[in-house]
Design brief:
The complex is a heterodimer.
Chain A (H helix, E strand, L loop, with lengths): L3 E12 L2 E13 L4 E5 L6 H8 L8 E10 L2 E2 L5 H7 L4 E4 L13 H12 L4 H14 L5 H4 L9 H13 L5 E5 L7 H18 L2 E6 L2 H7 L2 E6 L2 E7 H6 L4 H8 L39 H5 L5 E4 L2 E3 L2 H4 L16
Parallel strand pairs in A: 3-8, 3-9, 6-7, 7-8
Antiparallel strand pairs in A: 1-2, 1-4, 4-5, 9-10, 10-12, 11-12
Helix pairs in contact in A: 3-4, 4-6, 6-7
Chain B lengths: L3 H5 L15 H11 L1 H23 L20 E6 L7 E6 L12 H12 L4 E3 L2 E6 L14 H37 L1 H16 L2 H12 L3 H28 L2 H8 L4 H37 L11 H10 L6 H28 L7
Helix pairs in contact in B: 2-12, 3-5, 3-12, 5-6, 5-8, 5-10, 5-11, 5-12, 6-8, 7-8, 8-10, 10-11, 10-12, 11-12
Classes of the chains: A alpha/beta, B mainly alpha.
Chain lengths: 336, 362
């Protein structure tokens, strides 16, 4: 029994410009202690998927049209707000992209850290504060006892992300959703934060959903990867499979566009064209217009995710039919 | 303190060596201190408020004590005492302003009157029938009003009323406005639309007329004046707070707070409202002078506080009636009033710069 099982999730946004199908029929499952990556370019629906699970979609304009997210015997998408609130921050918590804006500038770090404990575990403040200091030390902030009363602006970006991680893990959640937690940090801090999440994950046995557009991070960090494009999962496989044997042209193209040192002097590979307009309810594969392997069938038949070998699923129709065996021109394993 | 472990472990950090968290309020105070105009406003206002609060105890007069023969004496004019001996009981003592002294001897020829007045003004005792006149050392710093009441005391007591109305009505408007605006902004959607349209309707009604109507309906009640003004002044506050809450609502730290499973009221009161506190304070400081001005307008129209109590508006109204003969009755309260308004406005402007570092020049 998987820890979290998301099935047929559809999240649409009803705007003046039309219905944006931000997440369209997404299913995945997360096992205990596993690290699952979700990769894809901007606007592919990575964040919206996770926001939907945690009930963070602003309604209106957003709406979860269909699907369920089974977690511990309940459906997170349809359960009452009160029940969801007991899960948020306690059993599933989230780290956001920009540590500069995800802490309240008007509150001391201590006040923000103890909040989940006061709300979920009805702890006394002194007790919660002691726990908060320990959790700050665990994410590698020195002199935690003295620093805890500072304001967020007195922390550096890396330290703030550490505080966010401490806050997310303070009530020992079963799932941690990390929404591009390292995107706005510089490379050295990025490595430290990844290392930290890995370490805390090992200590606490937390499952992690890792949203990123950095394939290098995925390669070093995740056990299992879902590649998303235009609101759908186009390929999902264990990490080494994704890199060694891509089964969807989009995945292959993504890997080819990673700048690498040995390709010095050559122009960078880019995927031609633009992602499809999500307000149009088109038929066929969303990647067809940009795909080097596209045939007529790709524009007519809606692709479905199908398992090809154990644990490796693809949504490429031609690959499923065996018409193409090799989706990329050359396999590039990313250097971390 | 020299224990065995102390030599091995690094020296313990003493509390006073640590960096203290500087809150945004401390930062704001630091910036405000550099703004001389705002600082002047703050000090001037504090001095005026303090004078109004404790001053009346030290002037030596009460605001309602009349002395008919002292009518409209000029500031610092010499005052004479008249002691009337009576057949029975204590002698009766009263005061006359020098400018009114001639009226006492209207039965004498004009030349004699002038001579007597000059003699008394010079400090000599003068006896006329049962009355003894002498120069007293009593002085009225701002002169007296047409009923012989000490103007300084009246201005200070009037200031108490004006400031009390200003602050109480502002408090009422802040409470209603912040709650209304924050709820509307946070809830969004239909609730927001309904709440703000209601505010718009109130906004469209002629404001002064409503207050006048309320005053007429419920009588000239002092408390009602607070409530009435506050109840119409909250509209702007609600709009400002709503706008700010909406722009804050989509910030990541609010999303983070929601993702931690905090209940809505906690997000509203602990995360959102403290973040708009700056704007609330700025607008409140600018509302106080507004309310005081409105109170003055109402008083000027005769709808303000009842005599013998006064407010700056009432005093200015009274002063304007005797403007041609005794200008100080207008100038003194007007001076206090304008100084208070100016300093509050300067302070409000300074606070805006101090609390919003983005708007300041440096």
């Amino acid at each position: 029994m998987a820890l979290l099982e998301v099935e047929n999730l559809r999240t649409y946004f009803y705007t003046r410009g039309g219905i944006i199908r931000a997440v369209d029929n997404v299913s995945f499952s997360l096992e205990q202690g596993e690290t699952m990556g979700i990769v894809g370019e901007s606007g592919s629906g990575k964040s919206v998927t996770c926001y939907s699970i945690l009930g963070l979609i602003p309604r209106p304009p957003g709406k979860i049209v269909s699907g369920c997210a089974r977690f511990g015997g309940m459906d997170l998408l349809s359960c009452p707000k009160e029940q969801l609130r007991r899960v948020q921050g306690k059993r599933i918590s989230m780290i956001f992209q920009d540590p500069m804006t995800s802490l309240n500038p008007y509150m001391r770090v201590s006040d923000q850290l103890v909040e989940p404990l006061l709300v979920h575990e009805k702890m006394r403040r002194s007790q919660a504060l002691a726990k908060a200091i320990v959790s700050l030390e665990e994410v590698g902030i020195q002199d935690a006892a003295s620093r805890i009363d500072l304001y967020p602006h007195q922390f550096s970006g890396g330290m703030r992300q550490r505080v966010m991680i401490a806050m997310a893990l303070i009530s020992r959640p079963e799932i941690l959703i990390a929404d591009e937690p390292t995107t706005s940090l510089d490379v050295t801090v990025q490595a430290q934060i990844l290392e930290l999440i890995k370490k805390r994950q090992k200590d606490l046995g937390t499952a992690v959903i890792f949203i990123t557009h950095d394939l290098g991070v995925v390669a070093s960090f995740c056990n299992y990867v879902n590649v998303m494009y235009a609101g759908r999962i186009v390929e999902s496989a264990p990490t080494d499979e994704i890199f060694a044997r891509p089964m969807h042209p989009y995945n292959a193209a993504l890997q080819q566009s990673i700048p690498a040192l040995h390709k010095k002097g050559q122009p960078l590979f880019t995927i031609p064209g633009l992602p499809p307009d999500l307000t149009i309810d088109f038929r066929g594969c969303p990647f067809a217009s940009r795909c080097a392997h596209a045939a007529d069938i790709c524009k007519e038949q809606n692709p479905a995710l199908k398992q090809m070998v154990s644990g490796h699923k693809t949504a490429c129709i031609r690959f499923q039919r065996g018409e193409i065996a090799e989706v990329g021109l050359r396999n590039v394993v990313s250097a971390v | 303190m020299a224990t065995a472990t102390a030599s091995i472990e690094p020296a313990p950090i003493r509390a006073e060596e640590l960096v203290q968290g500087t809150s945004l309020w401390k930062d704001a105070w630091f910036r405000l201190k550099k703004n001389h105009v705002a600082l002047f406003g703050l000090y001037a206002f504090c001095v005026i408020a303090l004078l109004c609060l404790v001053g009346p105890f030290f002037t030596g007069y009460t605001y309602e004590q009349t002395e008919i023969s002292l009518k409209a004496s000029a500031p610092m004019e010499p005052i004479l005492s008249r002691t009337e001996t009576r057949k029975t009981g204590e002698p009766r003592k009263s005061f006359i302003a020098l400018s009114n002294l001639e009226d006492e001897f209207l039965d004498k020829p004009e030349a004699d009157r002038k001579a007597i007045v000059a003699k008394i003004a010079h400090g000599e005792l003068y006896q006329e029938g049962r009355n003894t006149y002498r120069l007293s050392n009593q002085r009225h710093f701002f002169g007296t009003d047409p009923l012989g009441r000490d103007l300084l005391t009246r201005v200070l007591v009037g200031g108490r009323i004006s400031l009390a109305v200003g602050f109480a009505a502002t408090l009422v408007s802040v409470c209603i406005g912040v709650l209304w605006g924050a709820t509307a902004g946070f809830a969004g959607g239909k609730v927001d639309t309904l709440m703000m349209r209601f505010a718009d309707i109130l906004y469209a009604l002629p404001f002064t007329v409503i207050v006048i109507l309320l005053m007429v309906m419920f009588g000239r009640n002092f408390i009602l004046l607070f409530v009435a003004i506050g109840a119409v002044e909250w509209l702007n506050m609600a709009r400002i707070v709503r706008g700010q809450i909406i722009s804050l609502k989509n910030q990541e730290f609010i999303e983070a707070a929601i993702s931690l499973g905090l209940p809505s009221h906690q997000i509203l009161f602990r995360h959102l409202i403290p973040n708009v506190m700056g704007s609330i304070i700025i607008y409140a400081t600018l509302t106080v002078p507004n309310v005081m001005l409105l109170e003055a307008v109402l008083s000027f129209l005769g709808l303000g506080v009842q005599p013998p109590l006064s407010s700056w508006g009432v005093l200015i109204d009274e002063g304007s009636r005797t403007m041609e003969t005794s200008i100080w009755l207008l100038v003194c309260p007007a001076m206090f009033f304008s100084l208070a308004l100016f300093s509050l406005n300067f302070l409000g402007d300074g606070l805006r710069d101090a609390l919003d570092p983005k708007s300041s020049k440096d």
